[in-house]
Amino acid sequence: xxxxxxQPPHDGIQSVDLGGxxxxxxxxxxxxxxxxxxxxxxxxxTCKNIPALMNNFRTTFLAREMLQRGFTTARDxxxxxxxxxxxxxxxxxxxxxxxxxxxxGDQRATFSDEDPTTKCCAGHRSGTGCLYDxxxxxxVAVMSGGGVASRLNNxxxxxxxxxxxxxxxxxxxxxxxxxxxxxxxxxxxxxMINNGVLGIEHGNFLDEDLxxxxxxxxxxxxxxxxxxxxxxxxxxxxxxxxxxxxTHQFQRREFTIRSQVLPLLAILRSxxxxxxKMMRREDxxxxxxxxxxxxxxxxxxxxxxxxxVLDSKEKLLAVIKGAYIAFSSVKxxxxxxxxxxx
Length: 342
Prior knowledge:
TIM Barrel, six-stranded parallel beta sheet, four-stranded antiparallel beta sheet, 13 strands, globular, Amidohydrolase-related domain-containing protein, Metal_Hydrolase, hydrolase activity, acting on carbon-nitrogen (but not peptide) bonds, Amidohydro-rel
């Protein structure tokens, strides 16, 4: 990308007058599950072993819908694999979310005595988790406590020993990356942070004391009150929808929800610069700047005046990803990528 102000475009460059409209960096969703697709009637069905080919077709649809909402980059926190990363340009994959046996991410019934790779949604592309026990098996998104998607534990149950977490942190560091943790409770978050985990997903029950610890240790984390507490403590928070099945359509609603407790600029940064930092791509995405990827959205209104413009389908005029126009309702900006190869 090149950026110039008040200068005529280079020879051969088409100029499009968007006077009166607003250009914003492409949005980033830092917590998605692209393989937890639409098409099933409930959460239980979504976590079952959907045939891989069917799930691949559904994932393609879901990814396209995300792009048309203005999200030019996403970070998958469990479910996607390397083949999907290769298939979707600039799609960032965090790896399968890890869970101890019986923990959040273990989708087997309480009475099951079958092999965990046959009944758990873990270990299959249609699932969002994998089972690991012991430090030798733990090597980068980790479930540190219970959640809404599993039957065998509750939010207050911590997961993983210090030795297991140490193995994960050591392994990810050797690959120049980091561990991020699904954590709701103070106990779970503190357990993760004290063992070197650098990302906290959810963090709904965050309090002031723990927020100060997160800020001191440069932990990126993100409930409504938790967002306010984290912001006031100086914690870097990121936009993450964490939607599954039929709820993906509400991905943009997060902007309206966050506007109840956060300043508009903080919300916009959480979906651009902050996410880029958490992905360690802050030198390539998240800003409209020379040398960065040409990922942008065109809006009818200024999000720094009304952030809910990002929650409106009608107010999103165009989506540009990697200099290609992926979606547009502007006559002068025709779509330049073919999404229908047949």
